[in-house]
Specification:
homodimer; 284 residues; alpha/beta; Rossmann fold; Pantoate--beta-alanine Ligase, Chain: A,domain 2; 2 domains; 3-stranded antiparallel beta sheet; 39% helix
Chain lengths: 284, 284
């Protein structure tokens, strides 16, 4: 018989969150999400549960980080299912604020990170990172957690948030968590459910392209342009895949490399119709 | 015999500040300054001392909030004298960081407040408020104080910081403190020492202009243009004074008013040679 899962406490206002945190056992681990929770999120919550006495999950579809209104509106929402996932993975409380509790009346503050937000996702999605850093600064501040868990799948986002937290003196430790994949290699994403069956069948090409470049790296190749070309060639063989960028960059600055003399980050964004997928592979 | 004044503990790094605060009695009151402490700052420190078990003063001449390099370089600095003022007014600890402890290597984050920063000081000093909000966000975050004390003299700065703290979920209570004036009405400012004797003699014209407008308000005048003109006329009678702006604005939004139907904020910036002075008077 399956063990019954305790549902976490749900809070919806800044004030109720403050009260709940005032009584929470320390340390607190934070997982910020936009809902549509999948096994990738569950793995973050389980990691937070392993390290902390209290696990706070936030569910907020942040309008400020979508650069296309249609993407914001199409973003999947199912609160009851999300709360069950949180509980099953070990969350103690879930913060599900309405927009006005995150951005109160008259809100007009933004948090911006500079050079790290310019290439890759930043170049493809104007305003995206300013939306992310603003909401994450708010959530980190409201939570006051000892640790916050972010997925390596959004590698640039992880770097940007780490930079922001360090710059602003936010004492929360930013913990990177490994990518969770489907058996065929596709990285879990809330957007995967929007793929048609044909697109879904084609989507593992991202992982294959990263693996092909990694194979050349493992074989000793240190020419970044060859690694990028290897990814491009693999992607080009898949007619449903429309690559937006492929990158072989310095993993600290995200500047494109010529030759690899240390660690590097392979990454890409690929469109399948209206659905945009990203993936990456650190080399070191 | 004067009572000997205990010198406060001086800390210079984020890490030492964190350690000192971990042992500090609560609540903590914060006063952020750029040094060159005068009786206005001392009044903030005394107010913090009256309300809190620990008083933290920060002294940091913030290069990011000067829009003129010459103003930054001319800004007066005397650490030993400042620490004595802090101690005499009741400070427990003083944070005097070098630039790299406020803006660590690779720093690239900025905090910006929108519409409230556009008129008045924001229009006259491009980039000024972004420098202020960025450094104050960092200092509020590092301090984690229950209360922070800001002078009403920088009325727009006070509004902007209050807005930023509310927007970002910073739980520190922002406390407004009254303007401290010389006997002749000149508001205390670290820049006053840079006035020539002739300019110093002329500088109380700011206060006289505000008082003239207040007298019309007290007599029942509710036409904002007349109040602004009253200030302009008083300032125009002083040949050493070069007004930059005079304002009669909504005290919540800082938009210029036509007619006063509720509270208002009279404010002005006036140059005396290279020295720029501001003053204001709330009407309610």
């Amino acid at each position: 018989m399956a063990r019954p899962v305790a549902l976490p406490q749900v809070v919806r206002t800044r004030a109720d969150l403050r009260d709940a945190l005032a009584e929470a056992r320390r340390p607190v681990g934070l997982v910020t999400t936009m809902g549509a929770l999948h096994e990738g999120h569950a793995s973050l919550i389980r990691m937070a549960h392993a390290d902390n006495a209290t696990v706070l999950v936030t569910i907020f579809v942040n309008p400020r980080q979508f650069n296309e209104r249609s993407d914001f509106e199409a973003y999947p929402r199912d609160e009851a299912a999300d709360v069950r996932v949180c509980g099953a993975a070990g969350a103690t409380m879930v913060f599900i604020p309405p927009v006005e509790e995150v951005y109160p009346d008259g809100f007009q503050t933004s948090v911006r990170v500079g050079a790290l937000t310019e290439p890759l996702e930043g170049a493809s999605r104007p305003g995206h990172f300013e939306g992310v850093t603003t909401v994450v600064a708010i959530l980190l501040t409201l939570a006051g957690a000892e640790r916050a868990y972010f997925g390596q799948k959004d590698a640039q986002q992880l770097l940007v948030i780490r930079r922001m937290a360090a710059d602003l003196g936010i004492s929360t430790d930013i913990v990177a968590c490994p990518i969770v994949r489907e058996p065929d290699g596709l990285a879990l994403s809330s957007r995967n459910v929007r793929l048609t069956p044909q697109q879904r069948a084609a989507a593992p090409v991202l992982r294959r392209a990263l693996s092909a470049a990694r194979a050349r790296y493992d074989a000793g190749d240190r020419d970044a342009e060859i690694l990028r070309a290897t990814m491009q060639v693999t992607l080009a063989a898949e007619p449903l895949a429309a690559p937006e960028y492929v990158s072989c960059a310095d993993p600290a600055t995200l500047r494109e490399l010529d030759r690899l003399t240390g660690p590097a980050l392979l990454s890409m964004a690929v469109r399948f119709g209206a659905v945009r997928l990203i993936d990456n592979e650190p080399l070191s």
